[in-house]
Amino acid sequence: MLRGNAVNYVARQDCPPLAIGAATIKHPARPNDDLVKLAAKGAKVFVVREDLAERGIGLGRCVAEAQPIGRGEIVDLMESRDQVWHW
User: Fold this and answer.
1) Would you say the C-alpha torsion 63, 67, 70, 73 has a positive or negative sign?
2) Model pTM greater than 0.85?
């Protein structure tokens, strides 16, 4: 479950190589790809709808694998699962 600032991970984005001075990272993190791969292995990816809205991220900008839930549904989600990875 992604909430707070972690909801940025579900927004479609390009992650170009990063340079800080002379140091470069040619293979930056690709959170969109990682979430798609996680969902492909059977994990459910949930994102808190209100946290998306607070950051101006519309559902149309999110990867399809992310299932929006409301803040009021978080307790039910946690009670219905054996494990919830929470970011």
Assistant:
1) negative
2) no
Residue 5 and residue 86 in contact, taking contact as beta carbons nearer than 8 Å: no
Which tens digit of pLDDT belongs to each residue from 30-75? 888 888 899 999 999 999 999 999 999 999 999 888 999 999 999 9
Q: What is the DSSP string of 32-80?
A: HHHHHHHHHTT--EEEEHHHHHHTT--GGGB-TTEEEE-GGGHHHHHHH
Q: How far is CA 15 from the centre of its chain?
A: 14
Beta bridge partners of 19: 24
Of 31, 30, 29, the closest CA to residue 9 belongs to: 31
